[in-house]
């Protein structure tokens, strides 16, 4: 398959991976190693394709110079119901994983969370924001100025902490760069088993 035929799909894949942080045209040119005119044409192909596909819930938009895959406005009320009415009993395993990572690694970008989990975390991040357990804590210094996430005062209240210093310390192995998500989870769940087992509602 020629690069021209693959380019729209390549760009779509890149935008899907980076999520709400998006990519600029300049970054896409560098990543695809294609000319600006070729990238611009591929972006138009994607945009037209999304708009013409009525069954698609996403489209391509540009915000602050960055291209992002976003949900279509006609589904705004449906998405609002999802975010306002998460699981009534407890958080999902994915949300708890993301919360544990943010609690120990904050401030942290979503891409860093994705790298630790090995899967995209946009859904759990949005759910935790809706629950009031995490919030934006500024922007990173690197390229793209990615959003940094951290826990809120509500998080401290729900887990009975006076401050983040009350989080159980991680072992030296857990603090290393090769840390696995299940190490976060084990520490997090063991530390707060009483709160979760004792009727604490995190929904």
Automatic annotation (TrEMBL):
Keyword field: Cell cycle, Cell division, Chromosome partition, Cytoplasm
Database matches in Gene3D superfamilies: Winged helix-like DNA-binding domain superfamily/Winged helix DNA-binding domain
Transmembrane segments: none
One Pfam family, short name: SMC_ScpB
Gene Ontology CC entries for this record: cytoplasm
GO biological process, one term: DNA replication
Coiled-coil regions, chain positions: none
Compartment(s): Cytoplasm
InterPro entries: ScpB_csome_segregation, WH-like_DNA-bd_sf, WH_DNA-bd_sf
Protein family: Belongs to the ScpB family.
Subunit-structure text: Homodimer. Homodimerization may be required to stabilize the binding of ScpA to the Smc head domains. Component of a cohesin-like complex composed of ScpA, ScpB and the Smc homodimer, in which ScpA and ScpB bind to the head domain of Smc. The presence of the three proteins is required for the association of the complex with DNA.
Protein task: Participates in chromosomal partition during cell division. May act via the formation of a condensin-like complex containing Smc and ScpA that pull DNA away from mid-cell into both cell halves.
HAMAP family documented for this protein: ScpB (MF_01804)
NCBIfam families, A to Z: SMC-Scp complex subunit ScpB
Protein name: Segregation and condensation protein B
Annotated source species: Sporosarcina psychrophila (Bacillus psychrophilus)
Lineage summary: Bacteria, Bacillati, Bacillota, Bacilli, Bacillales
Gene from which the chain derives: scpB
């Amino acid at each position: 398959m020629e690069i021209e035929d693959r380019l729209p799909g390549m760009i779509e894949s890149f935008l899907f991976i980076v999520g709400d942080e998006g990519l600029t045209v300049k970054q896409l040119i560098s990543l695809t190693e294609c000319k600006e005119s070729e990238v611009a044409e591929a972006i138009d192909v994607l945009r037209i394709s999304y708009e013409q596909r009525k069954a698609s819930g996403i489209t391509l938009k540009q915000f602050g110079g960055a291209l992002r895959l976003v949900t279509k406005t006609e589904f705004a009320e449906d998405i609002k119901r999802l975010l306002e009415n998460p699981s009534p009993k407890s958080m999902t395993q994915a949300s708890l994983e993301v919360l544990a990572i943010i609690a120990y690694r904050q401030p942290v970008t979503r891409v860093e969370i994705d790298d630790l989990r090995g899967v995209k975390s946009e859904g759990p991040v949005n759910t935790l924001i809706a629950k009031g357990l995490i919030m934006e804590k500024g922007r990173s210094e690197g390229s793209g100025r990615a959003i940094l996430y951290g826990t809120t005062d509500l998080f401290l209240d729900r887990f009975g902490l006076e401050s983040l210093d009350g989080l159980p310390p991680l072992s030296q192995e857990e603090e290393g760069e090769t840390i696995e998500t299940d190490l976060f989870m084990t520490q997090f769940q063991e530390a707060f088993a009483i709160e979760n087992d004792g009727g604490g509602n995190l929904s």
